[in-house]
Design brief:
The complex is a heterodimer.
Chain A: E1 4-5, E2 10-14, E3 19-25, E4 32-38, E5 45-51, E6 56-59, E7 62-67, E8 72-77, E9 86-93, E10 102-103, E11 107-112
Parallel strand pairs in A: 2-11
Antiparallel strand pairs in A: 1-3, 3-8, 4-5, 4-9, 6-7, 7-8, 9-10, 9-11
Chain B: E1 5-7, E2 10-13, E3 19-24, E4 31-37, E5 43-50, E6 53-57, E7 64-68, E8 74-78, E9 87-94, E10 102-103, E11 107-111
Classes of the chains: A mainly beta, B mainly beta.
Chain lengths: ~110, ~110
């Protein structure tokens, strides 16, 4: 039962353009959502998060949008840079109940120079 | 540097053997999580400890066990190893608010 889904295994974007990574979840108990970036042979690095009481959170070039009614979140990277090329995981947790972080299967982003 | 330390970085062992993976959380973090990543797949949640007590359990095999010690470091024990247990094992820790978790560099386990 995949509670957090990233339906696009890969995405290619031109440098300077916007990258949009999508994530869907099924469990309405989730109330905190996170994005992680992962390079090969390294651990995931925390990027940005959003609480379910918000619909948008911005940090520099990274913005996360949450649509609770659709159970959907997205990560926007503007402008995209070659160094952003990595695998991006979304994760969800129910900090008010269950505490484990459930991860999606990841989207491999390639930013073309 | 996330502040989470995992040892060893690499481990090669034979089928049927037992290994122990170690994790030191970030200073002050009470929660430790263990994840398994096989063949560039997603991160599968195994188990979480909070201040020495088991808090949540995922799809952890009965051959696997974990514990968190009074100094808050954690160990993941994998026994009767099979070829399919070859994977990256990540440890993460989070603070009292349990918002974002920070990951270690992982232990790559190869079972031959």
């Amino acid at each position: 039962d995949q509670q957090v889904k990233q339906n696009s295994p890969s995405l290619s974007v031109q440098e300077g353009r916007i990258s949009i990574l999508n994530c869907d979840y099924t469990n309405s108990m989730f109330d905190y959502f996170l994005w992680y970036k992962k390079y090969p042979a390294e651990g995931p690095t925390f990027l940005i998060s959003i609480s379910s009481i918000k619909d948008k959170n911005e940090d520099g070039r990274f913005t996360v949008f949450l649509n609770k009614s659709a159970k959907h979140l997205s990560l926007h990277i503007v402008p995209s840079q070659p160094g952003d090329s990595a695998v991006y995981f979304c994760a969800a947790s129910g900090v008010s109940g269950t505490y484990k972080y459930i991860f999606g299967t990841g989207t491999r982003l390639k930013v073309l120079a | 540097d996330s502040g989470v330390t995992q040892t060893p970085k690499h481990l090669i062992t034979a089928t049927g053997q037992r290994v122990t993976l170690r994790c030191s959380p970030r200073s002050g973090d009470l929660s430790v999580y263990w994840y398994q990543q096989s063949l560039d797949q997603g991160l599968q949640f195994l188990i979480q400890y909070y201040n020495g007590e088991e808090r949540a359990k995922g799809n952890i095999l009965e051959r696997f066990s974990a514990q968190q010690f009074p100094d808050l470091h954690s160990e993941l024990n994998l026994s009767s190893l099979e070829l399919g247990d070859s994977a990256l094992y990540f440890c993460a820790s989070s603070g009292r608010r349990m918002t974002e978790a920070f990951f270690g560099q992982g232990t790559r386990l190869t079972v031959v």
